[in-house]
Amino acid sequence: MLGWKSPVYGFYQPEVVVGYLHRRKFHEFSCAKKGCGTKIRRYLDASAKNKTGQATNSRSTSNLRGHAKACFGKQMVKSVAGMKIDVVRQKILGKMPQRAFNAELDIKDEHGRTKKLTFTVRNQTPEELRCVLTSG
To answer: In a 3-state reduction of DSSP, which class is residue 60?
Structure first.
């Protein structure tokens, strides 16, 4: 839609639902990640209020950005800053991130010596997850 320039829109399907609930107009964005199914509503009227009771900005993308960070990872959301929406959509639909990150732990052995342990944490692939769930 016109005026939507934030790259965060690229993390959502291009088809946006326009609806009404209790006489309040909203836009509903569907997450573009396969299997996610999350839908985020953004109300367009001035009567929308956040949890603290303050009026919200109907043009704010903070709720969209929050879900994108949870679903795609903070690094991915940060890496698309300044990109056009179509480029972002092509990037995320073409190659989904594994959301891997490196971690380090300092471990003391039985002799009191400190050793540094470095490892990578990542989400399981659908095949790995299926194996875990079926093997009990």
So the answer is: coil
